[in-house]
Design a protein that fits this description.
- The chain is an alpha/beta fold.
- It is built from 22 helices and 42 strands.
- The strands form eleven sheets. It has a six-stranded mixed beta sheet with strand order 6-7-8-3-9-10, sandwiched between helices.
- Strand 4 and strand 5 form a beta hairpin.
- Helix 4 packs across helix 5.
- The longest helix has 45 residues.
- The radius of gyration is 51 Å and the shape is elongated.
- The two termini are 31 Å apart.
Length: 877
């Protein structure tokens, strides 16, 4: 029994156009029988039926179904009850037009969990036979007439063990004959179940109903039983003459008989002309055709006894149903096949999904290259730097000087930074490249004992650390360190040196000779008022074109072929440094002409003997300081430095007869054992370290200064320099490079997120469009009892199929093309210019599924928030 208490429902509640569509209704409905709702249009019949059947919700009141009490609309509970206990017959049939009759009924059984093939076939066969539609089981629903579709809809409602059948105007679109057939079936079924009928046909209601509820303005005015025991005149296309009043008259030339079901008068004019009749009347005139039968007898009436004889077995209603879930693979296969037989609009959707997958692939590739970009950590782990702003330079200088006096720091070292590039050319098409940014330091900081391979750098050479060498091998596709010796190293995009050796240390630094021209204190000679580079014989690889090579300790030189010198020329040469104006002039004889084997940048110049300079044959200016602990020299005259105010000068310098150099007292002369000290004043290590802070602030022109020092007491230094960041050169450089890398990642991540946002919006609107395009079948499923879970499951499986065979197809397609290009480039050039990240590859696949299932489900989720009636009304179904 259904019991309804104080049920209310409003449309536009609280507004001017408020309608109280169900007004405090109280009802007690039986377990079986046919109950009809009668009343004028707009009185609330259909709304009341929908609320009772769970298709819509009331605003207040209580509905009880055999102990199930509902004070509020609870979708999950209502869905479960509808699925098991309620069937529906609608005026507009709500069949799926693109399915056959059999498929429509099978779908209704799948909704209630009947999956057994034999059971499904038995139920469908019997039910279709009972309603006279079995022979049409293979026809598409769209090919049936209105009466045939309604009988199929009734058959669908009879398939499950329903306690309640709701029939909303089931005969509204049918003729009288089909209406009687439909009502006969519903009446027979009502012997075992409750049939609730909404109809405008008072005659049918009075004859078939066990109870009639008369409604007006949302209220139930009264309840009564049906008043007719027989039903006649139910045929639209058969005229029974004996049921009509007969009048006969003989008119000249015309035998006229009138049959009428009324005594009211009608105006008729009959004109006979040319053996044709012309009829004019105030009534509608319809010609008799083949569809209309005229019988001389009386129409038989239908009695309630005749209905009881209607053959429809309901014994299986008492059998419990064995419920199963619809097969995942069955739905998957159906949706997969639908991809290929879909309509043009659906194919456009699928193509857009493939493009979305391609966007996801591009996103992961961009991120992989950004995140996987290598970081080469530069700098030394035993040297420290201070990070400060330009305005704080004086404060930092003073505090560093104080730290030095207190013994917190020592061994100041000025470093520069250089960007380098090495190219490994194998063939015309095959090459690889290495780039990096590293500390550039004087070769005096490296002793021969620290060499792992090769030799110390000369003017045209550079020494690299093992840390840089290892990175080079990986990037250039080389197998061992030997392969790096002799390779060209481009520094700061233009200056080229040869790798002469590798140090046995894991730092990331490059060591060059101070007079190589890489630092800003290059020594040069003036020849005929033109500036030429000079080169030491031992530091350059060259080939004699004519003449001979130079000897040791002579005033001889070899000129490059493009200097316009010839063998035998006497060249006046003067030495200078910086802005010096007092030159010492010498005559040098050209004994040979040569060409360099490398480094065309240095072709304009002279080759002289290293020993020639060391032995004082050419005098030099003193232009720099060097600490005694790092310089390699021998005392020529006087003694070595002992105090902070003393210095040594080169034995071939212009200061050898002077008593002092700057603030330092000259106590002797020296001869350099390594050419990079030939023009330096040797001072004590303490003086060297103490002096450098005085030039500290003068060198500052950026927010990051390349000045390194050793730390003896890091904790005390940090207390002194509170507010400033102090760390090793290695860590600071690493932080800088990581920051640069992070900037790149952020840019690429922004692009990736932008693509992801576009993809997400695409997915949402495409799935929304797809839902709208399939809103009718979805609404049908919802209306005939499918639960939200059933709809979600089907929709998610469809989404899975779409994702696998569109999104994922586009994603994998782009990645396969990308992997193919990378593989081809690596095979051709022997080096990797792009990176692949398996983690991001799978993350991209995961993102596709997450976006599709989290965003793609939103349209159906929003749709299922409405009641079935609200959803069908919203989309005008």
């Amino acid at each position: 029994m259904i019991k309804i208490s104080n049920l209310d429902k409003y449309y536009s509640k609280g507004k001017e156009n408020e309608i109280h569509v169900i007004n405090r209704v109280n009802l007690a409905l039986p377990d079986t029988g046919l109950v009809s709702f009668l009343g004028p249009s707009g009185c609330g019949k259909t709304t009341l039926l929908n609320v009772i059947g769970g298709l819509d919700k009331g605003d207040s009141g209580v509905i009880e179904y055999d102990g199930l009490r509902l004070e509020k609309y609870k979708p999950k509970l209502i869905d479960s009850f509808r699925n098991e206990n309620i069937s529906y017959v609608f005026q507009n049939y709500l069949l799926l037009p693109d399915l056959t009759v059999y498929e429509n009924l099978r779908l209704a059984l799948e909704i209630i969990g009947v999956m057994d093939k034999d059971e499904v076939d038995k139920r469908i066969t019997y039910t279709l036979t009972a309603v006279g539609m079995y022979k049409y089981r293979k026809k598409f629903a769209r090919a049936l007439s209105g009466g045939q579709q309604q009988r199929v809809a009734i058959a669908r409602a009879l398939l499950k063990n329903s306690k309640i059948i709701l029939a909303d105007e089931p005969t509204g679109n049918l003729d009288k004959k089909n209406s009687v057939e439909v009502m006969n079936i519903l009446k027979k079924v009502s012997e075992k179940t409750l049939v609730l009928l909404v109809t405008h046909n008072k005659e049918l209601a009075e004859f078939y109903s066990d109870k009639i509820l008369l409604l007006k303005d949302g209220e139930v005015l009264n309840e009564r039983e049906g008043s007719l025991d027989t039903l006649a005149n139910f045929s639209d296309n058969t005229i029974y003459l004996e049921d009509l009043n007969k009048a006969e008259d003989i008119v000249s030339g015309l035998n006229l008989k009138l049959y009428s079901d009324t005594n009211s008068e009608a105006s008729i004019r009959i004109i006979r002309k040319n053996d044709r009749l012309f009829i004019d009347s105030d009534l509608e005139i319809q010609l008799i055709n083949n569809n209309v039968k005229i019988l001389e007898n009386r129409e038989k009436e239908i009695s309630k006894e005749n209905i009881r004889d209607f053959d429809y077995d309901t014994s299986w209603y008492s059998k419990p149903l064995t419920k199963e879930k619809e097969s995942f693979f069955k739905i998957f296969k159906y949706d997969f096949l639908n991809l290929f037989r879909s309509k043009r609009k659906a194919k456009v959707f699928n193509f857009l999904f493939i493009l979305i997958g391609a966007l996801f692939a591009i996103t992961t590739i961009i991120l992989a290259n950004a995140i996987s970009q290598e970081i080469n950590f530069t700098g030394l782990k035993d040297k420290y730097r201070v990070e400060f702003n330009y305005n704080d330079a004086n404060d930092v200088r003073d505090k560093l000087t104080r730290a030095y006096d207190l013994g917190y720091i020592d061994e100041f070292s000025n470093f520069e930074e250089a960007r380098i590039r090495v190219i490994n050319n194998k063939t015309f098409l095959e090459s690889s490249e290495f780039r990096g940014s590293y500390d550039l330091m004087p070769s005096s900081y490296i002793h021969k004992s620290e060499l792992l391979l090769g030799k110390l750098p000369g003017i045209t050479n550079a020494l690299i650390t093992k840390g840089i060498a290892s990175s080079m091998l990986d990037n250039l596709g080389l197998s061992d360190y030997d392969a790096l010796i002799g390779r060209e190293l481009e520094i700061d995009e233009g200056k080229r040196l040869t790798i002469s050796g590798i140090t046995n240390n894991d730092g990331m630094a490059i060591y060059v000779n101070p007079i190589s021209g890489i630092f800003n204190n290059t020594n040069k000679y003036e020849v005929y008022n033109s500036t030429y580079n000079y080169f030491y014989k031992d530091d350059l690889s060259y080939e004699l074109l004519e003449g001979r090579d130079i000897g040791d300790g002579t005033f001889e030189a070899v000129a490059f072929s493009n200097t316009n010198f010839k063998v035998g020329d006497i060249v006046p040469v003067s030495a200078y440094y910086g802005d010096a104006s007092d030159f010492s002039k010498y005559d040098v004889k050209i004994v040979g002409i040569a060409k360099p084997l490398k480094y065309a940048d240095y072709e304009r110049g002279l080759i002289i003997s290293d020993k020639k300079l060391i032995r004082g044959l050419i005098r030099t200016n003193v232009g720099d300081y060097a600490p005694s602990s790092l310089a390699s020299y021998e005392i020529i005259s006087g003694r070595d430095v002992e105090n902070v105010d003393e210095c040594l000068v080169p034995d071939n310098s212009m200061l050898e007869d002077e008593a002092s150099f700057g603030k330092y007292k000259i106590v002797g002369t020296y001869r350099a054992k390594r050419s990079d000290f030939f023009d330096s004043a040797i001072i004590s290590e303490k003086a060297y370290n103490y002096d450098l802070p005085n030039s500290f602030s003068e060198k500052i022109n950026t927010s990051y200064e390349y000045l390194g020092f050793s730390v003896n007491n890091l904790e005390a230094l940090r207390e002194l320099l509170v507010g400033y960041n102090i760390d090793t050169i290695y860590n600071l450089q690493a932080k800088n490079l990581k920051s640069q890398k992070m900037d790149g990642i952020i840019v690429n991540l922004s692009i990736a997120l932008g693509l992801l946002a576009v993809s997400t919006i695409y997915v949402y609107f495409i799935m929304r469009s797809k839902l709208i395009s399939s809103i009718y079948p979805t609404a049908v499923l919802r209306s005939i009892g499918a639960s939200k879970g059933f709809i979600y499951r089907r929709f998610l499986i469809e989404l899975l199929v779409i994702t696998l065979f569109t999104n994922l197809l586009g994603f994998l397609g782009v990645h396969l093309i990308y992997f193919g290009i990378v593989s081809a480039v690596e095979s051709l050039l022997g080096s990797s210019f792009f990176v692949t990240n398996i983690g991001l590859f799978f993350a991209g696949i995961l993102a596709i599924f997450l976006v599709n299932f989290s965003v793609g489900i939103l349209p159906i989720h929003r749709y299922l928030k409405d009641t079935p009636y609200e959803a069908t009304s919203k989309y005008d179904i």
